[in-house]
Specification:
single chain; mainly alpha; Growth Hormone, Chain: A; 19 helices; about 75% helix; disordered N terminus; disordered C terminus
Length: about 450
């Protein structure tokens, strides 16, 4: 559970000429995107492949791309939650202290969060296919090392490799929403991304606990290797692409932040993440205390979020066509806020049915926030899509950290369940602010009116 103003920058600009007239030309950078790096270095401008190879609505099947997006999202998210569930077993066998155990999470999260932004220009230069294939191979190497580790240092080395690899493959997969999907499928692709994240959030603790209990904690790391293989195979179906020599990171970020729509989209995502991520993190803890369940069973109610996301995902693309991206995102954020309020209203009553219903509303609404990601990617020059994807992923990580800190502080201020209810109300208010902001910064055009940007 993790992310329209009148006169705002639109998601994409309509082109009057047919695709055949411009599909093989270099895409113009736009008035505010600055000179291309090829021009800055005196090189000939790069040629953009034909639209049907770039996923702009041509003949290439989108099925493998959607599966690839889902697998990358699931793998990157589940690797945190599944390992956390096995931490006790790891500590017992390797005789680790509390400080050493904490590095099971930090060893992954720190390099992942630190390298998301620098990874963007690399993806713009090397292309999604190369980064996904080499990045997933590095992730597999880290998983193999961690699974066979007999010492703390080798185990953490494996986790660091996984974090470095995730920082490359996550923005590369996000970039596919823009470069490998036609405009009409991008909202659905972003919704599938959210479904995968929610599934990882719900399934990770259950899978980690079961693997540690019935097999061995090493299988927590080895179990991700089939996903790595799938990513490598599907990435091989993407067209090879070399971009221009991307500007330096600071220059790319400054160029992108000049765009009001991207600035607003990043802020909306930040607020939404603050509103829901901390709640998702602490919900199993509260359920374990309130409902007197084990760790695995306490996480099961989060399946309601994943199921609701899956049910709502097929509706997202059509909703964008009918209502427009801004209206869909605003309605989605409104539903999330309503679900948070409903969950707070249940209070300390151990009523599982009411909690499941509220969580389902949160999941259903979250699916309709998907156009936020696609709009943010569509309003930037295509040569900087990787950098923009890195910024979106970094914003998501930052919002998650702030959300966990906020909810944790509120829960620590008094009794756990009462603090959790207060946190839900605050989260609902933050999400409502995000909805109001989305109505101001996202475009009102409908997908059927849009084509490629820049």
């Amino acid at each position: 559970m993790i992310a329209t103003a009148i006169g705002a920058v639109p998601c994409a600009r309509h082109r009057s000429e047919p695709p055949s007239a411009w599909s093989s030309r270099r895409l113009p950078a736009g008035p505010d995107s600055g000179p291309s790096s090829s021009e800055e270095h005196g090189r000939s401008p790069a040629v953009v492949p034909p639209a049907r190879e770039r996923g702009s609505g041509g003949e290439r099947s989108t099925g493998p791309v959607l599966v690839l997006i889902a697998v990358v999202a699931f793998l990157a998210a589940v690797d945190s939650t599944i390992v956390a569930a096995a931490a006790g077993s790891v500590a017992a066998e390797l005789h680790l202290g509390v400080g050493q155990v904490s590095w099971l999470g930090l060893g992954y999260v720190l390099p992942y969060a630190a390298l998301l932004l620098p990874a963007g220009p690399m993806i713009d230069r090397l292309g999604e296919r190369a980064v996904l294939r080499w990045g997933s191979a590095l992730f597999g190497a880290g998983s193999w090392l961690a699974g066979f580790a007999s010492t703390w240092s080798l185990l953490i080395a494996g986790r660091v490799l996984q974090g470095v690899a995730a920082a490359a493959v996550v923005p590369a997969a996000l970039m596919l929403l823009r470069t490998a999907l036609p405009p009409a499928r991008r909202a659905s692709g972003a919704a599938i991304w959210l479904v995968a994240l929610a599934g990882a959030l719900a399934a990770g603790p259950v899978l980690g606990g079961a693997l540690s209990e019935y097999l061995h904690w090493r299988w927590v790391f080895w179990s991700v290797l089939p996903f790595v293989l799938i990513i490598m195979l599907l990435a091989g179906t993407l067209p090879a692409r070399l971009g221009e020599v991307a500007p330096r990171l600071g220059g790319s970020v400054r160029v992108l932040l000049r765009r009001r729509g991207l600035r607003g989209g990043l802020l909306v995502q930040l607020l939404w993440g603050v509103g829901v991520t901390g709640v998702a993190f602490f919900t199993p803890v509260v359920h374990q205390e309130l409902l007197r369940t084990g760790p695995s069973a306490a996480a099961l109610p989060l399946l309601a979020v994943a199921i609701a996301l899956i049910v709502a995902t097929p509706l997202v693309g059509r909703a964008v066509v009918v209502m427009g991206a801004a209206a869909v995102v605003v309605c989605g954020l409104g539903l999330v806020a309503a679900g948070l309020v409903a969950l707070a209203a249940v209070g300390d009553v151990p009523a599982l049915g009411l909690r499941l219903a509220a969580l389902a509303v949160i999941g259903f609404g979250s699916a309709f926030t998907a156009p936020l990601t696609t709009c943010a990617l569509e309003i930037v020059p295509e040569r900087l899509t990787g950098t923009a994807a890195g910024m979106l992923a970094a914003s998501r990580e930052l919002s998650g950290a702030l959300g966990v800190a906020l909810v944790g502080a509120l829960m620590a201020s008094g009794p756990m369940v009462a603090g959790y209810a207060d946190a839900l109300v605050v989260a609902a208010a933050v999400t409502a602010v995000a909805a109001l902001l989305a109505a101001r910064v996202l475009p009102r055009r409908r997908t059927s009116e849009l084509s490629l940007v820049d």
